[in-house]
Structures are given as C-alpha cells and as structure tokens.
Amino acid sequence: MPAIVLMLRGINLGPTRRIAMAQLRDALTDAGLSDVRTYVQSGNVVARSQLEPTAVQELTEQTIEQRFGLDVPTVARTEVELAAVVELNPLGAVATDPKRHQVSFLSAPLEPAVAQRLLARAQEPEAIAIQGREIYAWHPDGIARSKLWNALAGKGLGVTATARNWATVTTLLGMAREVAA
Q1: From the candidate CATH numbers 3.30.390, 2.60.40, 3.30.70, 2.40.10, the one assigned to the domain spanning 83-166
Q2: Are residues 163 and 102 in contact, defined by beta-carbon separation less than 8 angstroms?
Q3: Which CATH architecture is the domain 3-81+172-180 placed in?
Q4: Cα–Cα distances in Å, from 6 out to 51, 79, 161?
Q5: In 139-177, at which residue ranges do the beta strands (DSSP E only) sit?
Q6: Which of 51, 73, 102, 109 could join 160 in a cystine, given CB atoms 3.0 to 4.6 angstroms apart?
Q7: CB-CB contact of 49 with 34 (8 Å)
Q8: How far is 162 from 7, CA to CA, in rounded Å?
Q9: For the CA atoms of 51, 54, 60, 62, what is the dihedral angle to 10 degrees?
Q10: 114 burial type by CB count under 10 A (0-12 exposed, 13-18 middle, 19+ buried)
Q11: Is the pLDDT of residue 16 over 80?
C-alpha cells in the first residue's frame, strides 16, 4: 500500500481546535488507514492506504468532523509527490535555514492572477517560487516580520493551503519512506 502524507490546517495552534495526536491516530486507524503515524502536534500524519490521495484527504476531514466536531481542511501528498517537492526545491541555493524555509501545500494550483500577486509581494531578502501545487518561500528574517507570509497564510489564495517548514517537510518524507517500505 502506498504511503500518504496528510497535512492538517490550523489545529493545535491555540486553546481551541485541539486534537491529541494519539486520538487522531486511533480515529484514522478506525476509519481504515494503516500504519498511521503523526509528527509534532500541528497536524502531520503519515499512513498507508489503497485509496487515492484525494479520497484519503476527504476521509480524514470527515473522520475529524465526526470524531472531534472540527472542520479541518487537509492537504494530501503521496510519498512520491513529496519526494518530488524535496528534489525540486527551487530555493535550495538561498534557503540556508530549514526553519525559515517554508513550503505551502495547496489543494490545487493557484489561479494565475493570485500567483502574480504573490510573486509581486516578495521583496528581498525574501524569495518565493511557485511550482504546481506548492509555494516555496524563504523568510530569512523569520515569518513574524514577513508581509509575504501573511499573504501565504491568508485565505485569499482561493484554495486550501497549509505550510510546513523545510525541516518538517524532509522529516515527513523520511516517515513516508519508512511507512512505504
């Protein structure tokens, strides 16, 4: 069975929208996913399933709604897709700190006008690259001071998006490879 990486948007960031990872693992296992593993409290799941990634994404969202009463948008990538994201890394030459190098995973490619607005917001020393369903961003001064980050984290993208720093992205890929083996 292929490995699927699920990235949940906006859980465990404040006092509301809390889900214990052990309970999430149990819920997804009960829903039919295999070898369910989580990474950190911010909603990163790796599992195996025969279902297509979009079906696993929908199953995850439905399970969370039914079990925890939360509407949690989720973005899914296969292990192969995540490996391609890591291999491509168009900002690899400039992004030297994995905690300040972000990838936003999108449910669908951006509309061209939205992509152009984002590209125009990037001001040095920040950098951005949009490739298909991913937005790579480099925030050398951190996300707290970034105007670009606000645009990436907002709802104005027209698609579901959730971001992970490069350290998390590569860790999730390693976990997916372990689960797939």
Answers
A1: 3.30.70
A2: yes
A3: 2-Layer Sandwich (3.30)
A4: 13, 10, 12
A5: 161-165
A6: 73
A7: yes
A8: 7
A9: -110
A10: middle
A11: no
pTM above 0.85, yes or no: yes
Contacts for 40 with CB less than 8 Å, ≥ 6 apart: 168
Bin 32: left if φ > 0, else alpha if -120 < ψ < 50, else beta.
left
Show the tokens assigned to 77. 């990538």
Give the whole-angstrom CA distance, residue 139 versus residue 124: 9
Average pLDDT, stretch 25-29? Answer: 97
Where does residue 164 rank: exposed (0-12), middle (13-18), buried (19+ CB within 10 A)?
buried
Question: What pLDDT digit, counting tens, does each position of 39-61 carry?
Answer: 988 889 999 999 999 999 999 99
Containing H/E element for 80? helix 79-88
